[in-house]
Amino acid sequence: AQSVTQLGSHVSVSEGALVLLRCNYSSSVPPYLFWYVQYPNQGLQLLLKYTTGATLVKGINGFEAEFKKSETSFHLTKPSAHMSDAAEYFCAVTTYNNNDMRFGAGTRLTVKP
Amino acid sequence: SQTIHQWPATLVQPVGSPLSLECTVEGTSNPNLYWYRQAAGRGLQLLFYSVGIGQISSEVPQNLSASRPQDRQFILSSKKLLLSDSGFYLCAWSVVGVTGELFFGEGSRLTVL
Fold first, then answer.
1. I need a surface site. Which of A113, B11, B32, B55 has the fewest CB within 10 A?
2. Are the CB atoms for A33 and A50 separated by under 8 Å?
3. Would the CB atoms of A51 and B99 count as touching at under 8 Å?
4. For residues A11-18, average pLDDT
């Protein structure tokens, strides 16, 4: 079965600094990869996804992620952090026509003024 | 457009009491439906998923159960709650056979005392 590992349960950056949240996946077949964001006491909102095609995908709120098959990675980046980016971020993996999406443990992003 | 409603948003229940959480999706037909649990500081755990009315797959043995009495209604139940059932419960839906992207409800926070 597929799985993801998020490196770092907590990441703290200063406002305006680069945001880098790490995700590595494991899958025996081509993966579909996702990043979700969760604000306190709310559901998860999709930031971006990779299914096929271009390996650099852009999402909402200025986030992007690059699928690197050779490194089995799908790291999330944003050039300049805003205070409003403070939230918990989840990486997730599934495969084609699969009902089972697996989530990482999450990374809590703190943005310092 | 599609929407997902989940209720109640918050509840506090004594140990041994019953539970019923409801989830309804609007604007789509024959969705896949999911119940996830998110414990404090942990990732998302898939509890149940359903590909059709009356069809329920359980991922984790526990004292919870799920039912799908209508195409767009998904119910999570328990006859007797345990302390360990406390957590944030998320309902989600996806389109059958596509990229597997999940759309989440706003969540229900359950505290068992």
1. A113
2. yes
3. yes
4. 97
Assign B66 to helix, strand or coil. Answer: strand
For all residues of chain B together, what is the average pLDDT? 91
Place of tokens 């990374």: A107
Query: Which one of A32, A43, A96 has the shortest CB-CB distance to B106?
Result: A43
Contact A76, A90 (CB under 8 A): no
Contacts of B100 in chain A (CB under 8 A): 32, 94-99, 101
| The A19-26 sheet, strands edge to edge | A3-7, A19-26, A73-78, A64-68, A56-58
- Picking from B19, B20, B23, the residue whose alpha carbon sits closest to that of residue B5 is B23
Of B51, B102, B106, the CB nearest to A101: B102
How many whole angstroms separate alpha carbon A38 and alpha carbon A60?
13
* Of residues A42, A92, A103, nearest to B107 (C-beta): A42
Q: How confident is the model at residue A59 (pLDDT cuts 50, 70, 90)?
A: very high
**pLDDT over 70 (residue B98):** no
Which amino acid type is present at position A52? T
